[in-house]
Amino acid sequence: MTSVLPPRTDAGTPAAFTDRHIGIGPDAQAHMLEVVGYDSVEALVETAVPASIHVQPRATSSIPTAATEAEALAELRELASANRSARPMIGLGYYDTFTPSVIARNVLENPSWYTAYTPYQPEISQGRLEALINFQTMVTDLTGLATANASMLDESTAVVEGMLVARRASKAKTDVFLVDVDSLPQTKALLHHRAAAVGIEIVETSFEGEIPAAFGAFVQYPGATGRIWDFSAVAETVHANGGLVVAAADLLALTLLRSPGSLGADVAVGTTQRFGVPLGFGGPHAGYMAVRAGLERQLPGRLVGVSQDAVGAPAYRLSLQTREQHIRREKATSNICTAQVLLAVMAAMYAVYHGPDGLRAIATRVARKADALASALRSYDLTLASDAFFDTVRVHVPGRAQDVVDRARERGYQLLWVDDATVGVSVDETTTDADLSAILDAFGFASEELSEGEALRGVEEALHRDDEYLTHPVFHSHRSETAMMRYLKTLADRDYALDRGMIPLGSCTMKLNAATEMAAVSWPEFSRVHPFAPEADVHGYLEMIEQLERWLAEVTGYDAVSLQPNAGSQGELAGLLAIRGYHLANGDTARTVCLIPSSAHGTNAASAILAGMKVVVVACDEAGNVDLGDLRAKIAQHAAELSALMITYPSTHGVYEHDVLEITQAVHDAGGQVYVDGANLNALLGFARFGDLGGDVSHLNLHKTFAIPHGGGGPGVGPVAAKAHLAPFLPSHPFSQRAEHAGGTFDGGPVSAAPHGSAGILPISWAYVRMMGAEGLRQATAAAVLSANYIATRLREHYPVLYAGEGGLVAHECILDLRPLKEQTGVTVDDVAKRLIDYGFHAPTMSFPVAGTLMVEPTESEDLAELDRFVDAMIAIKQEALAVAAGEWPADDNPLVNAPHTAETVVVGEWEHPYSRETAVYPVRSLIRGKYWPPVRRIDQAYGDRNLVCSCPPPEAFA
Q1: What is the mean pLDDT of residues 110-129?
Q2: Which residues carry this modification: N6-(pyridoxal phosphate)lysine (predicted)?
């Protein structure tokens, strides 16, 4: 066998991308192997990975030989050029927008923002948490509701979550949910698909006449046709029947229209895409959800709140974290455990930069242009679907709709074909008078000078907004680019991201997000493409998507891949819904039990519940493996109703289970399907394949294994991959540009608002695979496994490694057991995590999957110096804990319990601690010139839950 890790390129020769991505060179590799006790990486990996599941590199592969960075960019340019440049005026919740350059450069293209992780360590996440507080404040102000969360995946999935909130909170004894016939068609499709799995009956209605009893009602405001109407009377009736009202509202329209909260909505949902977030062929975008007072604890996803730190200073944190789906498991009310943070930050900063006056001016221009177009069309005796609209007009052209759409396309515009007699035109902030003239020409009329339009001309005065919003100073203080640039820099400096140092989060794979991979995301040929654009205009996107689907299918051992799920949780759900569809198609209606090991990712259980399944937990043994005896007993007990087993491989405990083939065979023998959670694929890629383990379906985390950045807690992409028999049940979409995929025809319902999910960031993973090649992917896995075992070996004598497999080896991560340290010294896992900040590190994953532990994953991207820096920090912290136990420092006043230490801590007032200032902030001398200073002390988590504040605090709070 050839060497798994590559030699470095000779001096004077351009380095291969693999050399740039993998942090370990030959000398470091040799040293690490000596420490771990193996002669070669081959021997190490072959011992760790069970021989029964090994696959050798393929003689032929659909993945081309690794390209250089220049070659990959050239190929992406060629794909981009195959996307026809057009002005999208299709609407349906997606609009072209201007991203202010100061936001594009300082947020979207800034690794300080896009390489950050979810703010589970709030002391080193104050910048993005403040940005999210701005987002939540923006949403609550515009929707007129009490509390908003830190973003949703997209508008349509937010509507589904709103439906589920209504079901939980309603007292109505019915399973009926009313849906506005004027809803976005993609939302209606998603509602029908998701409702069927959980026993909800969808009834579409125009809300005219008698309104039937229901636990909730959904209205679109403005509607898909552009219609604006007063739904307050409907809300009163629904409330009288014990139901809740969910309204999907356009935030830009809400700068001119009465808020949904003022009209009686209990929940408002939607998208913030048109607030400066590029179209990106459908995503990623930040959806939103806001609720009235009393529903805060029903909110899914993330909620940022204000608490205080150890000295009483205000500080931000994630609030009500008991709602986290990783914690609640089968009791979870949603499987969404993430957000779209990077995009929420962009949308919030768009509002900060423009302020209420600027947003109102943009909305007024949009509305006036829409009215000018409508007036011109009416002057030619054409009829509109509604005279009350904001930005969208539906035009009746009997028998001519296709001709109008075709003529517009010839002129470089994409309009919406509704039916043979109707065309939709949506105006946005980029629309010019010349665009409107060209549209008139497409309808067959002279492109004469248009008259000045009037905003909301046909909308009744009672629906015009007259209250103030965005009154907080943050929305009035950053008008100049200088001020905005400095504000964004200030926030970024408060955070710890991958551009500062290693983020060793087990189960999260915080690897390098290379700049070359990121480059194409900002290209207009990719970023300014509407997700419902005609197939002829998106050949480049479709070719890139098909290539990526084919590559992912090959490396996972599956036959088909759908890239539609826009988060790992949605990929899980799509896979389980495919299993559900397969059983129903076979007449196995009783197969509803899903077996899930006790060690599984928490979202597994939540996804199973939302797929209409009943969760049965399978025990794990002392080594962290699935307990085969308990598994067989549970299979026997539920044989007739067994739907699926969900298993993570390597296990959530970070080891390769040797009995995996026996496990999957037992499930198949009982007629069940096997779902292999792909969260830990970074430990397997190139050495084994889920499909060969007995997997029938898996989700993959492109934001982990395939280099899409985490963005501070989003975006993510969670494709679902399946064997051929499940392929027909993978996600479809009413606006998909193609029925056929590389793996066949997909006929399952949608799981996201756009046909290809967050397609705008797929160039990142495409570039990663293209530049790594099949062999490079294999080398990355080997480097990740070597690095994890190096850390485990060096730290084992200081902290017990909780689980290990063959030869005492771990996979790509190791779990350090801190419970003995607490028993010996009183120092907790929290103390160690916070003290790591003083040493210049983001803490590993805390207390998952075992309370009182740290799960460490170094990834392949880190070099030996950074690995050693982390190991040395952990050893030094152990010595500090022992000093506490020895009585050198009091248990209630030592560097660990007081961590992290801010600059203010050591320079203001008298120093009265029994340890020195130097010990507090410079525990190792290497920090002196390059220290990261946390902006706040340790945050009081409980205080923030007892005193829930989830919008911008007044400036005097920081005085």
Answers
A1: 97
A2: 704
Does the pLDDT of residue 410 top 60, yes or no? yes
Residue type, 764: I
Question: First CA to last CA across the chain, in angstroms?
Answer: 65
Model pLDDT, residue 724 = 97
Question: CB-based contacts of 542: which residues, under 8 Å, 6+ apart?
Answer: 535, 737, 738
Strand ranges of the sheet holding 853-856, from the earlier edge strand across to the other edge: 814-817, 853-856, 845-846
Q: Any residues with CB less than 8 A from the CB of 854 and at least 6 apart, and which?
A: 506, 799, 815, 816, 818, 829, 832, 833, 843, 844, 845, 846
DSSP for 147-183, written as a single string? EE-S-BS-HHHHHHHHHHHHHHH---S--EEEEETTS
pLDDT, one tens digit per residue, over 303-346 is 999 999 999 999 999 998 645 555 666 677 788 878 999 999 99
Helices vs strands, H then E, count in the chain: 29, 28
Which amino acid appears at position 544 of this protein? M
| Residue 876 backbone phi and psi in degrees, to 5 | -65, -40
Query: How far, in Å, CA of 164 to CA of 237, rounded?
Result: 20
Please report the beta strands in 569-713, taking only residues with DSSP state E, as ranges in sequence order: 593-597, 614-618, 642-648, 673-678, 697-700
Collapsed DSSP state (helix, strand, coil) of residue 738: coil
Q: Which residues contact 158 (CB under 8 A, 6 or more apart)?
A: 152, 248, 269, 270, 271, 287, 288, 289
Residue with tokens 């064997």: 723
2 has a pLDDT exceeding 60: no
465-488 in b/e burial notation, b at 16+ Cβ within 10 A?
beeebbebebbeebeeeeebeebb
SS3 829: helix
Q: Which of 423, 378, 464, 372 is nearest to 225 (CA)?
A: 423
Specify the 3-state DSSP secondary structure of 208.
Answer: coil
The neighbour count for residue 952, using CB atoms within 10 Å, is: 22
Amino acid in the structure at residue 324: E
Per-residue model confidence as pLDDT tens digits over 534-555 = 999 999 999 999 999 999 999 9
Bridge-based pairing state of the strands 304-309 and 939-940: antiparallel
Identify the structural domains of the chain with CATH numbers, from first to last.
86-301+336-492 (3.40.640.10), 524-771 (3.40.640.10)
* 643 touches 609 (CB < 8 A): no
CA triple 544-547-550, angle to 5 deg? 150
Identify the three-state secondary structure at position 491. helix
Which of 947, 951, 940, 959 lies closest to 310 in space, CA to CA? 940
CA–CA separation, 880 vs 618, rounded Å? Answer: 39
CB atoms within 10 A of CB 912: 6
Burial of 315 per CB tally in 10 Å (0-12, 13-18, 19+): buried
What integer pLDDT is reported at residue 456 of this predicted model? 97
Count CB-CB contacts under 10 A for residue 949.
17
Q: How far apart (Å, rounded) are the C-alpha atoms in residues 618 and 628?
A: 9
Nearest Cα neighbor of 944 from 413, 467, 314 is 314
Tokens encoding 564? 């539609």
Give Cα separations from 496 to 83, 404, 845 (angstroms). Answer: 37, 52, 15
Chain-centre distance for alpha carbon 587: 35
pTM: 0.97
Kindly report the CA angle at 513 between 706 and 842, in degrees rounded to 5? 105
